[in-house]
Amino acid sequence: xxxxxIYNPTRIVFGKDKISQIDKLIPKDAxxxxxxxxxSVKKYKTLDKVKEALGDRIHFEFGxxxxxxxxxxxxxxxxxxxKENINCLLAVGGGSVIDGTKFIKLAANYDGEPKExxxxxxxxxxxxxxxxxxxxxxxxxxxxxxxxxxxxVTCDEGxxxxxxxxxxxxxxxxxxxxxxxxxxTQVANGIVDTFVHVNEQYLTxxxxxxxxxRTSEGILRTLIEIGQDTIKxxxxxxxxxxxxxxxxMGLNGLIGSGVPQDWTxxxxxxxxxxxxxxxxxxxxxxVMPSLFEVKKDAKRDKLIQYGKRVxxxxxxxxxxxxxxxxxxxxxxxxxxxxxxxxxxxxxxxxQIDLVIEQLKNHNFTSLxxxxxxxxxxxxxxxxxxx
Length: 386
Prior knowledge:
This protein is an alpha/beta fold. The protein is built from 15 helices and 8 strands. It has helices at residues 22-25, 40-43, 46-54, 71-84, 95-108, 116-119, 184-202, 210-232, 237-249, 264-276, 280-294, 300-309, 318-335, 352-361, 375-384, and strands at residues 11-14, 31-36, 58-62, 88-93, 133-138, 150-155, 158-163, 171-174. The strands form 2 sheets. A 6-stranded parallel beta sheet has the order 1-8-5-4-2-3, with helices on both faces. Strand 6 and strand 7 form a beta hairpin. Helix 11 (280-294) packs antiparallel against helix 13, helix 12 packs across helix 13 and helix 14 (352-361) runs antiparallel to helix 15. It is globular and about 65 Å long.
């Protein structure tokens, strides 16, 4: 196991009807900007409950944060933060709203042009000079953003990740009942996103990290057990509670501590989203099975472990275990209604050049846990995904 330093200050308030806890967790004198996405938080009265919990606190609203939050939209929210001296950002929504809200805080604390945090990197170096807290009310389990310090934001130049400890929420409300009204495809995307998050940290090479491995395997097995059932039974509290907790624990730093990490599927997936508008979860379902096939020699030991422990594959032939583990991964995604081939979305071989060009432009030329996935290997992964 590698050495590591883990830090996570986020308080998780989990359970039904926990929005009322906001009144105890946000200071009475806070000036709050509520951020959200589309109209669902209004339609299903989630926003009303949040405002009721805020009571007499001064608050403002900013809606319209898109899936894959856009830089230009977030800058409009930043104007409100600066004009009204906001000191608390309350994100009500899924990962995109939370990610966008984190970037608003980073931008408020950055002295230069905020887009530089995306196109030039260095978001981790931003120092907190404005006392602005972040809190969240999670409505879509998927990204784990409610309990980590990372975010992904889209601008004209592409889709970029930022990370800074100041972006940890001070608290997150996790009420599984808020997920009951989600469209099936969003739930399926969230399951895939969580599954891939775990595998980005688990399916690399062994370092005798038994706790991290067993915890990762527990999350993966749980997602397989509940995946189809929670889509078919959207108001089953226990199913949605397990999904929500898996998503949060899948990317809060716990299972990724002390182990090698990959993240190739995400980097390639981000380019597919930026170029072709595919849902994030769908891009991951396309890339990860293909990645496993192309890199199965480098990932051999972990693929065997994955096949045995996650899918209960019983075979004395290690090559058979590997091939079955990969095919069962693809089958699991397909069982959720998520297609796993580029051709399923009308993307053709000649369009792969566009993806490779973007990977080159963004310096994603040595990806993977061994930093050995160059542009040619990325091309093989994409061609194999056709």
